[in-house]
Prior knowledge:
single chain, seven-stranded mixed sheet
Amino acid sequence: MKINLSATLALSMALMLTLGVSSVVSAQSPDITTGVVTEVETSGDGSLIGLSLLTGDGDVHRFTVSSSDPNTTFGLENRVGDRWVSDLATDAREAATRLRDQQSRLTQISVQSDANGTAISIVQAESRDVSSNLGYLFAVVAIAWIGIASYVVYLGVRQRTLSSDLSRLRGDNENNES
């Protein structure tokens, strides 16, 4: 069974591209910390000053928040899944309330910070285990590529069979006319 070289090359290039993209996606940024809120620090008027996160490794990271450059932004969900998106300059008291809610529910959040430990963004953690999610994604993509490659090979075999049958019928037709 002959396999079309260009189709094989295209499939192998697509597979290598898929593997390359998945390895780039799996690299995590060093300034993103994911964990559970252990402490919410507020000022006398209830405005958020800072927070501490406990990571899966057992390390506690402290972050300050800022309403100036960079203005800390939030994207947190409540118990029913409604997403609250705001920034510290707009509503510092609500930010403290929302973070206390996250703390009481032991919900994982992700904090993107600068080199000084100032939180740039605080969002609900989308996944608890990124490596297993990427593993599932890779498996689905690999299965899809195997399915596509099998279908291309099947179509090639089917086309050759039809071509040889058509040639045989033409030969039979020419023999009958003579």
